[in-house]
Write a structure and sequence with these properties.
- With 936 residues, this protein is an alpha/beta fold.
- It folds into 5 domains: 3-179, Lambda Exonuclease, Chain A; 191-245 and 252-273, no CATH class; 284-475, Nucleotidyltransferase, domain 5 (2-Layer Sandwich); 540-660 and 898-935, no CATH class; 746-837, no CATH class.
- Helices cover 44% and strands 17% of the residues.
- It is elongated and about 125 Å long.
Length: 936
Amino acid sequence: MTITSHLFEAYLKCPMKCWLRSQGELGEGNGYAAWTQSQNEIYRSEGIRRLIEGVPQNERIIAPPVSDSPRSAKWRLAVDLLTQAQSLESRMHAVERVPSEGRGKPAQFIPIHFVFTNKLAKDAKLLLAFDALVFSKVLGREVCLARIIHGDDHATLKVKTSGLMGEVRNRVEKMRALLSNSSPPDLVLNRHCAECEFQARCRQKAMEKDDLSLLANMTEKERKKYHGKGIFTVTQLSYTFRPRRRPRRMRDKRERYHHSLKALAIREKKIHIVGSPELKIEGTPVYLDVEGLPDRDFYYLIGLRIGNGESAVQHSLWADTVEDEGKIWREFLGILETVEKAVLIHYGSYETTFLKRMCERHGGPPEGSTMAVAVQSGVNLLSHIFAQIYFAGFSNGLKDTAGTFGFKWIETGSSGLNAIAWRYQWEKLHEAVFKERLTTYNSQDCEALSLVAEAVRQLAARVEDGNGTGKPSVVRADADEFTKRSKWRRFASSVSGFEYINSAAHWGYQRNRIYVRSGELKLKPKKRLPRKKFFSRVEQVVLWERSCVCPKCNRRYCLKCAARSRTVQDILFGHHSLKRRLVRYVFQTYRCRGCGTIFGLPERFQLCRRYGWNLVAYFFYQVAELCVPQLVVVHSFNRLFGFELNRSTMNNLKIRAAQYYAATRQEILERLVRGDLIHADETRANIKGKSAFVWVLTSFREVVYILSDSREGEIVQKLLADFKGVLVSDFYTAYDSINCPQQKCLIHLMRDLNDDVLNNPFDEQLKQMVTAFGDLLKSVVETVDRYGLKNHFLRKHLRHVERFYREIGEGDYQSEAGLKCKDRFERNRDTLFTFLNYDGVPWNNNNAEHAVKAFARLRDVIAGTSTEQGVKEYLTLLSVCQTCKYMGVDFLDFLRSGEKDIHAFAESRRRRKRPSQTSQPPGSQADAIPGGGSQL
């Protein structure tokens, strides 16, 4: 099929309009479209007449035959020129021929296009570029310059068509594919529908299909996203709304707009409210609606409705010419001055722009006056409705919103565009009927605005009073009754007495009131258990064995000093029992002859003076590894062992234990940085209600946790500045700036791709690309399962990776999800398959995720009650705990030993013989005290 300029112009507006024109269908029922067409024809005829007047008759030609070649033309001006080339056809308004400037230089041809509007859209330039494209094919050389004559002053705009040729050719190819198909394209309503001759036909079809494009606020990108999920109708979309609990940090910000909730309001024909809309009118409401000509920036009608109900007063301020605009503005200010405490209310941003421009053009009211306050504090009603109140209309426009309350305009098809046509017709004919239409339309807009404003005010008042669901037609979309879908729902009944009867059947009510009164159940008060007395006599004495070598200078022969002792409440570990004892530890101290250092009393006995180290170890074993709440452990110790511990005491022990193992944590971090592999991840933490983040760095043997105020990557970048190994992480961009080889977690990628496929079930291109990636990764994982993480066996897959990227690079992906997936693969090409080039580098980040889960369990126990310093202390102990677990060391044994070096402890345990191979009886003190010591 031949692509004409008439079809190309339609395609620029809407593919469906182009297809309907190609089928020869005629539109009907749109007065603005017919008026626009007649205006263009009149302006074109007038423009051609003006051009012809300045050209001699022998140098101009009108409607030359198609067979005449323009290359041999002698005319200066051609009018209504029809050109055809390569299934393209263009009927140009006019073409100016500029004679050659010398030998070897061909004559230049300049297409001319007429547009009656003062402001030009890009579509006018593209249509002119299409004419230039067809004409250049006829000439055999490129036409680089064209002109548009437009507006009331016949202004001339020069257009460089060479810069638009690429876009024009692209659209021409899409048109060929569209017109070669016997079936019409997908019906999509857009903004052009209001000025299209096929408006009634397309809207009827869309209503029959319940198409998503009926929702005026939905963008094309959002609509395609829903189509990819298999959602094609407004009814289908309405069932997808799920209210979400907003984070505390977002509660003061407005909720985002939910298309699904708009669809739900339409389906149920009920008003749905989200959040707490507010509309307080403290004064006399003045409803403002302005009519103007956007093409000229001229405002010719100001409508004011003062007050509500039957007592409301309507004013219509009319301007015959542009010079009268200032006069109606002054009349407007004069009316405002007579209103006591006026509050301007309008709908949309058009009136906001009007108030600002009028103050700039004709001067604003005096500063501090009631008029100035009213003008500067105008209320945009749409801003109070948007994303908070969802009416049962397809758009948030005043026509649809007022229509939900049954309001109707007298003039059928009343709209802002028709008002523009009526104004132009009045200026041309000066017939009173057009002025009457405009003033009536404007007055009804003000009346509809007052109706909607009063409805919004009542809705906001009911929400504030807690009666948001007072009427059956109003639903609180964020109320507990709406969000909760539990089978144990709250019982509610309109039958008198049912709710009282239901409450009397509750378990606690019957047990504590009914059964006791009837004598069937006698509740005895709980007897308070007698407190166990703690014997003051020492039950065990342990002589602590200590080397006489100076720990500072390693000098061997040191002087003996006085013996020192510590009497503590402790727990003794047997093979199958725990016993509470009052134990006295005796230490022989020494003084070094060389450096004068006095040693012999272990550091941990200096930290804890009343309680033994076994008790401390067992306490933090339960808190850090078993994730038992600290208060629960305290209650357990007091109940089972008869201690008199309190939470503050154990918190002090936690502080000292964290200080004791700070060096251990630092050693773990240094080993990680010196190593060849680090897994990194991060998760959120809660500190007294404030958000923080915990970074996790781990290898196969060490784990360390670092607390940060935010998720900014500066802290991890600083920690890993000297790291030269391979970093395995997720796709968070903070890791990208670390200067080392990186491997992205393919499990994260696989899950994201799987979600994309599930969310876009009809996107075959996306599914094909993801399937190819899955086949590639499956073959790699099979090799890993068979041979392990060895480069010798894995490097054979590098050629498969190259082939995969070559295939997706050659693929022609059209869908948004497919292009996004392709871009992600190409953007991360250097980090997805790094593990194929190294030994011992995994393809996932499971080590870090496992460590994150450990903190998540502890985070649930802490529950945001700890301070920042308290969380850091927990993280120190958790770092030691998880490192022990990764190295196969029992965390409780390590704590009881008092050692600080986990690697040294693990090595000593491997060298040490098992207790079953010794002659020492079970439960002896040497087994009970790993740090060494003999019982006296």
